[in-house]
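[job 4471] stage=fold_predict status=RUNNING
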Amino acid sequence: MPKKLYRSRKDKMIGGVAGGLAEYFEVDPTLVRIIFIVTLFLGGSGVLAYIILWIVVPEEPYVFTTAGTTTESTSSSSTASSSEQKSTAEPDFTAYREAYEEQRHRRRNIGGTILIIIGVLFLADNFIPRFNFGDYWPLILIALGFGLLLRSKKN
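[job 4471] inference complete, writing structure tokens
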């Protein structure tokens, strides 16, 4: 079975992209994060690649395991005691699934908004003569940092 690329749930700083790439290529996640930062300073393509991977690469699926055991009823008579008949009830994961879908929807909205803002900046860079997209990278990074701080305070 071929390996699949997922965003990591266990080793994530922002979106789990670097952790997922590290798991896929079997390297240290810190090395992948350093590569993203180096590409940031070499033209900014690392941020754009990270955002695109954050949107495109699916998050690692949840794995739910149940530890229930079943015993068979081995009664010679037609009436069996209730202690001999045990059934495992499937756990209800609807609350987890709803929270996951809500979080996924919120992430897609954030990612889409970021892509639209970057697209508008690139478009303005092409059509407005004195507009230089490189001058706005610090503002974009500051806004992303504030967004992450506000998001962490809500949790």
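[job 4471] summary: The radius of gyration is 24 Å.
[job 4471] exit 0
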